[in-house]
Amino acid sequence: MEIRRFRLGDEAALFRVYFTAIHRVASRDHSSQQVEAWAPKDLDVDLWTRRVRGIRPFVVELGGEIVGYADVQQNGYIDHFFVSGAHPRQGIGARLMARLHEEAATLNLTELTSDVSLTAEPFFTVHGFQVLERRYPTLRGVTIPNAFMRKALAQGG
Ligand SMILES: CC(C)(COP(=O)(O)OP(=O)(O)OC[C@H]1O[C@@H](n2cnc3c(N)ncnc32)[C@H](O)[C@@H]1OP(=O)(O)O)[C@@H](O)C(=O)NCCC(=O)NCCS
Fold this sequence. Notes:
alpha+beta, Aminopeptidase, 10 strands, 34% helix, 28% strand, globular
């Protein structure tokens, strides 16, 4: 398993990870209407490309295939955190989370935050995050509840 920074050209593979994570894994905790609104099959390619180039995530490769990705922004906010639906519970998320913590230490961050899905909440809890607020954002007309979670880091990560 290798973790590297995002490269131009990764966009389509990241969409496959996002799509399968939501359609195969998050679908256990969400209605089909929520799944469709969260990850539409026909999601605008330009919109997606701008989005993933904007967050500049870390990317996990396994045997040459991209199987996960996650970002951490300069203020400690984690925007995306997804592991391929074909590779669940294999420790890929844990490796990515460790890499985000290394980056947080490099950036001297004092906290990590994220709007975490119901599916990912147990995983973020295992990694030391706590729920600060339950939220009910609407995406493409459908409400998809999440939790704003935070983890305080020791000074300097
Ligand atoms: C949440 C997610 C990133 C976890 O990735 P993963 O590679 O499967 O996680 P790991 O294998 O590293 O799991 C590490 C530990 O976290 C916990 N964990 C992970 N997924 C869990 C789940 N669904 N329920 C309960 N605990 C979970 C477990 O303690 C697990 O250890 P174990 O498998 O030995 O019991 C992945 O399931 C995912 O992408 N989910 C769907 C999309 C999503 O909601 N993304 C987040 C948006 S904020």
